[in-house]
Design a protein that fits this description.
Layout: H1 2-24, E1 29-33, H2 40-47, H3 56-66, E2 74-83, E3 86-93, E4 98-101, E5 107-110, E6 116-120, E7 129-132, H4 150-165, E8 172-175, E9 181-185, E10 188-193, H5 198-208, E11 217-220, E12 232-235
Parallel strand pairs: 1-3, 7-8, 10-11
Antiparallel strand pairs: 2-3, 4-5, 5-6, 8-9, 9-10, 11-12
Length: about 240
């Protein structure tokens, strides 16, 4: 009899707690952070998927434990509570430093390790397009490395790292079959030649590009090194 009374009391307490949560924990404020690709209105439908999400505790439990939010170009969405009436939504975008185009015309976005992060027909801004004459992309899946030979893989990682480190605005990186590299920076074509001295060449490029603002033409860095500091710029359309 005592056990039954205890059970009844527990059930009553649980019911009161549930009713209190339902009545007092309505969402009055939502704070979004983290994403550079999506605004708050775009993220909202992925988090608040039904009318019950108007309750902050329900929204937190559903998104944290029972619903894996899947949004293109987004690695993770973390939902937490600041207080009973305030929901915090922290969005982590995928690391996508550059892109290539596969045989179907889709953009293949990859990270600093040349691992595929997203395959999409949507073009994101501010990512250099990488073109390789001797490489064809097909049937790639997220999480797979780009199908590059070891040497080319290292060259690409080095160039991406250098342009990020020096904050050089690059629209396109093109690898010819013979291994020479050309970059497009706005209206300036930059001939890097082989991948030798890439870091030093890109460092020089960082200081040269502002001086060429408004110009069109080709900047020749293919023969530049510590022993030969001559740099030729040929104007042209």
């Amino acid at each position: 009899m005592v056990t039954l009374n205890i059970l009844l009391i527990l059930l009553i307490l649980c019911a009161v707690a549930a009713l209190t949560i339902w009545l007092l924990c309505d969402v009055k404020k939502v704070t979004y952070s983290g994403s550079e690709l999506y605004d708050d209105e775009a993220i909202e439908p992925y988090v608040f998927t039904n009318e019950y999400c108007k309750n902050s505790v329900y929204c937190f439990i559903k998104n944290r434990f029972f619903n894996e939010v899947s949004i293109p170009f987004v690695k993770e969405v973390k939902v937490s509570l600041q207080d009973p009436n305030t929901v915090l939504v922290e969005v982590t975008d995928k690391e996508m430093v550059a892109m290539m185009i596969d045989k179907d015309g889709a953009f293949v976005y990859f990270d600093r390790e040349n691992v595929v992060q997203e395959v999409s027909m949507v073009l994101l801004p501010d990512r250099p397009l990488v073109v390789m004459e001797d490489v064809e992309l097909k049937d790639l899946n997220i999480g797979e490395p780009l199908p590059l030979k070891s040497k080319r893989n290292k060259e690409l990682k080095k160039i991406i790292s250098c342009i990020e480190e020096e904050n050089v605005p690059v629209d396109k990186i093109a690898f010819a079959a013979d291994g020479t590299v050309t970059m497009i920076c706005g209206d300036i074509t930059v001939d890097l030649g082989s991948s030798a001295n890439t870091d030093a060449k890109i460092l020089r490029l960082k200081y040269i590009l502002p001086k060429l603002e408004g110009e069109k033409g080709t900047l020749h860095l293919e023969d530049w090194d510590e022993g030969n500091r001559d740099i030729v710029f040929k104007r042209g359309a």
